[in-house]
Design goal:
By secondary structure, the chain is mainly α. The chain contains eleven helices and three strands. It folds into four domains: 42 residues, Winged helix-like DNA-binding domain superfamily/Winged helix DNA-binding domain (Arc Repressor Mutant, subunit A, Orthogonal Bundle); 46 residues, Orthogonal Bundle (Arc Repressor Mutant, subunit A), CATH 1.10.10; 42 residues; 53 residues. It has a three-stranded antiparallel beta sheet. The radius of gyration is 26 Å and the shape is elongated.
Length: 205
Amino acid sequence: MTIDKIEALDKRRCKVFLEGDFAFVLYNGEIRRYHLEEGEELPESVYEEILREIVCRRARERALFLLKSTGRTELELRRKLKSSWYPQCAIDEAVSFLKRYHYIDDAEYARNYVELYGKKKSRAELMQTLRQKGIDPQLVKDLWEELEPDTAGQIQRILIKRGFNADRATLKEKQKTISYLLRRGFSWEEIRKAGENLSDMCGEE
């Protein structure tokens, strides 16, 4: 395969393009070590060695470093590695390695997230956040039903935080509060079940 272009990424690294496509990023010293030059042929054996010994190994190390500070879903990790200029084959290999040793587990991540934020967020908010992280919405629904978060308690805590008092609130304030709860992802039924005052408030709406 032909080395079409070697393009500086920063002062220490270069992007290498093979047969018209981006292949990988190497440090300048590695470029010199393998005698890579534009227009020259790269033997298949050398290409595979670079991927195996440098690029894939580095992708695994980068992934492990990213997981040190916080848990991540597979999708989040893939996005991070892609933004760091790792080729798809290295990303796939790194993810496979992490799954094999249970460093990433989307189901476990979702369970921990629901347990942690189930008392603070509505189901709709949880589903939206986890969907953006690449979690299957059906898994979130199942976890929500399994863990049975205290939705009424969530709503009551939100109202206390907002300083809302149904006995003293005007109709406009009640309507505004209902709209806020609905935007947070709580259903009419959940609002009604949260307490007698809230039921009256919904009735006035």
